[in-house]
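User: Here's a chain of 215 residues. Predict its fold as tokens.
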Amino acid sequence: MSSYLDEEEQMDAIKSWWQENRWFVGMAAAVILIFSSGWQLWQRHVMLEQREAVRCYMAMVDSEDPKVINTRADALIAKHPKTPFAAVAYLKKAQGYVADKDYENAIKMLKYVAGDPKIPAFQAIAQLRLARVMLTQNKPDYAITLLKDVRNDYYLGWSDWVLGDCYQAKGDMNQAAKHYQAALKILSNNEIAANMISQQLMALPLDTHQGEKHA
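Assistant: Prediction complete.
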């Protein structure tokens, strides 16, 4: 399921952040320009920084070379640490580390984003990915604790999906079914995700399904 928490969802979060901050910058400038034209320079500086951050982001995602991606991610983080693109860079680096099975460094990258509440969408993505890494490390209880902290409504369905995987790994099939059903309800409009969750739900022991029907 990791393919569903990809750059498309990250871009949705970036667009949301951008719209909110552009509104703030515009309103602040409109008021303060009455008193000082110096704020025009400040606004221009902010816009130029955002454009440069976008350029760095596009350069990073346009490459398919893991080493180039990692280098450009480092540059993005160093130059634009306060933009949402820095969070994407950390997620990108973590993705590369996971591909290389370097889980220690992947966990470091994901913990950084998961611990930063300034951009809730990216925090939720990092929490979900960190939980999946912990699950591959046979630490389902740790993963469950992480997932219970997911507060972003958009990602609750994904959280339930991973929680289902966690409880299945623990052998608690009733809890697994409960969370798979919750995920299926929330993600019903996502045809591919819904089909995958349905398959996992149907693969659970038959008595689990029967118990859920009577619940």
